[in-house]
Amino acid sequence: MNIAVEDTVVAAAPKAVAGLERGIDWTGAFWVASGVPPLVLFSIGAVAATVGKLSWVIWMASIGLGFIQSFTYAEIAGLFPNKSGGTSVYGAIAWVRYSKVIAPISVWCNWFAWSPVQATGSALAAGYILSALFAPDSVVNTWQITLLDLGSIKSGLSLRVNAVFLLGAVLMFSVKAIQDGGILRSANTTKILGISAMIPLILIGVVPILTGDIVKSNFFPLVPLAHDAAGRVIDGTWNMNGITVLAGGMFLAAWSTYGFETAVCYTSELKNPKTDTFKAIFYSGLLCVVVYTLVPFAFQGFLGLAGMLAPDIYSGMGVAAVMANMVHAGRLIGAVVVVMLVLALVLSLITSMAGSSRTLYQASVDGWLPKYLSKVNEHHAPSNAMLTDLCFNLLLLLMSDSVFVIGAANVGYMIFNFLNLNAGWIHRLDRPLQERPWRAPTWVLVVGAALSFVNLAFMGFGADVYGVGTLSTGLVFCALIVPVFIYRHYVQDKGHFPEEMKEDLGHNSGASAIKRAGIWPYVVLVLGVAVVAITHRLAVY
Fold it and tell me: Which of 93, 160, 233, 450 is buried most deeply by CB count within 10 Å?
């Protein structure tokens, strides 16, 4: 009825808001993903306070596992050069042939895991600023209005308004304003912030080694943290309690170290996705290997066990002050270091909003999530998805325990990693002839599939280390995708996927839609559930 008018509009404005724009090369994706190394600031204190002297080993092992897993993600990202949203979207296409419900869980869990970076990062940045400007007992730092007691979920948890919330909200709105300008503006901004962020992180990792501030006794013996009957800290043993502590550290560290897979979230915005996709994730991974190896090692060697167990280190709020001391900064230089660490956190906010909003956008385009999320603005930025991200994170910012938020979100991240590492071999079987710009060695896919179960074991053993209810809260939130998907697929789309998805789903050719993986995807799902159930039952807190 309005076809003629619509055609006229399109002809007159060929750059209309029809989708995302190919505006960056692999270096742009690299700089946007450079917000992942600062994630070490989010949980370095919590991991240290959980595992004690094992902390440096945990971080090295975790980034090693993340680097190996990234090669599976690089292959499946190359299969779909016209899609954004990252590996969860590419993995969902592997699973949809075997279950319409499992596929959107992959996308939802990835978004659920990544999105809280904004709330947690803005809270830490606000805490750094307030701690630098006001005394700890200042009314600015101590006033609080409790809105809702959530003690039934976790002891001490509540929704509250305080100075951290107000300042954190300002930071998040500022980040959204940058994102509204499109991927090219985001990439240029993150390049500037990335350089500013890497300088203090590299200095923090190197200076204590050069100045001799690393104390050998702070690293050994390699035993888990434990407490005696009076609650005093002692060296633990490798019993089930020790294994639980180890798994808890690996579980929380993974939320940070695995995150550079976000480099493939921008495939549909790369000028040459066939070559740029692999370069983006590979070089992002190398940067993370350096940061996640040096910074935790130097942090522990400088601070020691007693320092790592301080409450402000566990929460993360006191990390910036310690890191300023690590580079022997005076008052003025120390303030500069804190400012640069704040910029590093702002960088992570940009990375998170850019990646998680594109996950929502592509999931909407592909028929997993509600249609309104597929709207883009005049700069080809996914505006509605970013607004949804912002509102969700403002709610999370009200929560009094950021470590609990990270733990619950990481339940979704472990499920996402499990599904997508197995999507690698499913795609290899179901799409043997499809072009692969980069093809991972078969042994890498096998190792990735094995690590998917290791990640679930970390989750089963270690999630509730950060508060009883962490695992169950995460699982409940992951399940919320089911009614959302049912509404989109069966109410809005009448049981059919969008036309754009037919080729990806193999509906254009009967041969391409054959389920060559057979029953094995279902076997993997059953084994995955069993791993979580058994390890959670064996865990000792």
Answer: 93
Structure tokens at 224: 């888990």
Half-sphere exposure of 296 (CA within 13 A, CB side): 36
Element (H, E) at 161: strand 158-162
Task: Give the closest residue to 430 by CA, choosing from 85, 72, 93, 100.
Answer: 93
Residue 415 CA to residue 314 CA, distance in Å, equals 25
Give the Å distances, CA to CA, from 390 to 133, 157, 488. 27, 21, 22
**Residue 313 Cα distances to 44, 54, 320, 390, 398, angstroms:** 8, 16, 9, 27, 20
The residue among 382, 396, 392, 395 whose CA lies nearest residue 179 is: 382
**Sign (positive/negative) of CA torsion 282, 83, 91, 189?**
positive
Q: H or E stretch including 201?
A: helix 183-211
CA dihedral (485, 74, 387, 119) in degrees, to 10, reads 110
- 146: β partners: 160
The rounded distance, in Å, linking the Cα atoms of 309 and 222 is 17
Question: Each residue of 208-225: pLDDT tens digit?
Answer: 888 888 888 889 888 888
Q: If we measure between CA atoms, which residue out of 258, 327, 243 comes closest to residue 289?
A: 258
Cβ-contact 184, 29 below 8 angstroms: no
Q: How far apart are CA 136 and CA 130, in angstroms?
A: 9
Query: Within 10 A of 525 (CB to CB), how many other CB atoms are there?
Result: 17
DSSP H or E stretch at residue 162: strand 158-162
* Interatomic CA distance for residues 188 and 108, integer angstroms: 28
Indicate whether this model's pTM tops 0.70: yes
**Beta-carbon neighbour count of residue 141 at 10 Å?**
18
- Kindly state the DSSP code that residue 316 receives in the 8-state scheme: S
* pLDDT tens-place string over residues 388-432: 888 999 999 999 888 888 899 999 999 999 999 999 999 999 988
